């Protein structure tokens, strides 16, 4: 399959924690030979359909999915995500599936444990109609900052992470605008990514131990694989691609 094919973004962590659930989720599972039946925890950033396609969850059990490794799924998201979940599953969610799917409504500034993970929900700057989130996920001394979708955050964002003693081993930046020098109140480009990297390092949240990835490219910024690899490298960043595996 062409390396130029880019689908909607999500991340699987250690096989059992998923960040976002777009309409391409089944394709991701099939293409990369992943077992999403093992996923126990789903962190949702916001309700937009490229990040949360709730209707697919009706297939998580009953006769649609057998021999599942984890029948129970815990979903974490804001109030709008909860509304979309209820709307998207109302017509077709079987009771046998619904009884194993639990929704937990959260907001920015919460810290909670899921399995062996420590999760911080952080405020995103993305849309006025809901309080979108980004996440910090920590497990066994390794920490990921997942920053899709968001524009450059306010100062409080860095102060909060510093106050929690966060040292991020990897950062996944929103890079919807690629290397285009245009401003946005909803997304970032590589110039913004570099500005945010400077802030993170200034506050001691990241450093020489950190890997910086860029993803969530719009098709409007010509995100061809070799071009993005080259451009990102010039900024000291790593361009993600479909199926990328990261070990921390």
From TrEMBL:
It comes from the Bacteria. SUPFAM superfamilies: Metallo-hydrolase/oxidoreductase. Gene3D superfamilies: Ribonuclease Z/Hydroxyacylglutathione hydrolase-like (3.60.15.10). Residues 30-198 form the Metallo-beta-lactamase domain. It holds the Pfam family Lactamase_B_2. This is MBL fold metallo-hydrolase. The lineage of its organism: Bacteria, Bacillati, Bacillota, Clostridia, Christensenellales.
